[in-house]
Amino acid sequence: MFVSELKVLLKKYKEEDLRLLILEMYKAMPKKLREEKDIDALLQDVHEYLRIGKVKRRQNKQTDINDLKPEIDQFIEYAYNQYYFAPNSFVRKKERPKWRFNVKAYIKSLQGISVEGEEGRIATNLLEKLYEMLCYACCYYIFNTDDPFRSVGIEQTMLLDIVIKRKLGCGINQESVKSAVALVINSRVNRETLTSFLINALIENLKYPDSKEIAIEQCMALKGELEKAKPNPSRKSWGLSSSDYERREKIENLVEMVFRLNIALCEYEKAIKYYHENNVERDSEISLYVLLSLLLEYELKEYWLSEYDKAVKKGVKPREALQKTYKYIKENDKLPDYFL
Questions:
Q1: Range of the structural domain that residue 323 is part of
Q2: Structural domain tally of the chain?
Q3: CA-CA distance, 256 to 291, in Å (whole number)?
Q4: Is residue 2 in a domain?
Q5: Positions of the chain with pLDDT lower than 50, given as ranges
Q6: Distance between CA 81 and CA 270 in Å, rounded?
Q7: pLDDT tens digits, residue range 235-261?
Q8: Is residue 153 a contact partner of residue 104, using CB atoms and an 8 Å limit?
């Protein structure tokens, strides 16, 4: 119904009927909508409501971080305890599916708080905790979904970008960059996201060469910490434990991040050299495949051919897709869009 039609319709009602109509409409309106639109203020003084206007009402009703923090902290605690997934006496059954709406509202409210000052720091920290919780939910059931980012309606890279922008918003230094790098490396991913996407999201926020250099330093420092944490080999141990596997995977991701950062600095030889010296993949053919995938992504044809030829001379036998791609480049003098 158009507003013009509503005006005509309301003319036929008597005053008593209008009161009844407003009362029923108010009762039918969800509480959340009444609060968002500040309907109570509209009913108390319609003229003042219209005079103040929508924008000013929002300004007067800013998020109070002191009220929001304990609510979010409790929500996160309950989530990790699976209270939104399994039967319990803390979260009622009908409230459990509403977790996604809670997260949406929290993210929206926290984004509305400036990054400056103590309140900004708290808001950023809470956003980071919500992001980490959703990452955790990609691998462990704490909600009734195995794709929590999709359920909330936000891409993983997008929420990561929001958090990183806030982390770096008060100044790019060793501490803030190290925190951002660690956040990326410790992120569990959903089915639609690769860690490479998260790495690229961070690099896009490092606009200047100095910030990229700081990131390289922090990657190397974190890599050193992970290598020191390597457990002593046991004769009884066969293969890798889950913790050792995760540690190795993080090292691989840090090596990739340093590679990409050097590429972003146009230090191509340096990037390739670092990859060769620090890549932890024991299978030389798989190592070659990963490197050539990265070089293809950055459209570095001459380096692609050079690394392929060097590997073959060392006795590496590339898989069929790499052989076909090599032949295509030689015949067409250009890189394909993907491995053939």
A1: 288-340
A2: 4
A3: 9
A4: no
A5: 54-61, 235-239
A6: 46
A7: 444 445 568 889 999 999 999 999 999
A8: yes
